[in-house]
Write a structure and sequence with these properties.
By secondary structure, the protein is mostly helical. It has helices spanning about 10-65, 70, 80-100, 110-115, 115-120, 140, 150-170, 170-175, 190-215.
Length: about 220
């Protein structure tokens, strides 16, 4: 016995047993916590991928009854449907290329690879931040010579499909990985997942603008029915 009247050997054995059990329980709790986080993150990534694909499906649905003239119509200072379509597609194209670069793949966008600014007769220096249309004045965007509807839609489908494929292939770890973009902006340290959600919100805002433009022109504007 020690000075406290307790058998030292028994105390040590119980302490070791308790410590072992506690450690095991702690490890189990940590493993369960990690698993729960992984499941939640994977579900979040999958949900975002689904919403992204749905938004793009609605976008093409809402423009399917528009011809070239309707795509170019403008009311006041509002941008045309054609410009909004390109703007949504260009941001999607930019993001899928940035994600590819983060993963060590070709970081050139479709816009760059196909040399579309020169093919369309657009001045890259006047296309706003990263040639996405961000920050462009409506007066400047109104002067852009929009290509044929079929060409804008072709680019939009290629860009949005590339982003959807990219997003669908992300796991929880990739979703939480910081986007390695060399661009400086308010989201420079954001994760890939944060960027995807931001671009998805942006696309829905411009989808709403397209719906509004159609409605104001007397056409059925809703994209979801």
């Amino acid at each position: 016995m020690d000075g406290r009247g307790v058998e030292s050997g028994h105390v040590d054995t119980r302490a070791r047993r308790l410590g072992s059990n506690t450690l095991g329980e702690t490890r189990s709790a940590r493993s369960a916590g990690s698993l729960r986080r992984e499941v939640v993150n994977r579900s979040t990534a999958q949900a975002v991928a689904g919403y992204s694909a749905l938004t793009h499906e609605r976008l093409f649905h809402v423009i399917e009854d528009l011809d070239d003239a309707a795509l170019r119509e403008r009311s006041g200072r509002s941008n045309s449907v054609g410009f909004n379509l390109w703007h949504i597609a260009r941001w999607a194209d930019w993001l899928q290329a940035q994600i590819a670069g983060t993963r060590g793949l070709d970081e050139r966008s479709i816009w760059e690879r196909e040399g579309l600014p020169s093919r369309w007769g657009w001045d890259s220096a006047k296309l706003g931040a990263w040639e996405t249309g961000m920050g462009m004045d409506e007066g400047v965007s109104a002067q852009l010579p929009l290509p044929a509807r079929s060409e804008i839609e072709r680019y939009a489908r290629a860009s949005l499909s590339a982003l959807d494929t990219c997003v669908a292939g992300l796991d929880a770890e990739s979703f939480d990985t910081p986007l390695k973009s060399g661009k400086t902006n308010e989201m420079k340290d954001a994760t890939i997942g944060s960027w995807i959600v931001s671009i998805l919100v942006h696309a829905n805002r411009h989808l709403g603008m397209i719906e509004s433009i159609k409605g104001a022109s007397g056409r059925r504007g809703t994209a979801s029915a």
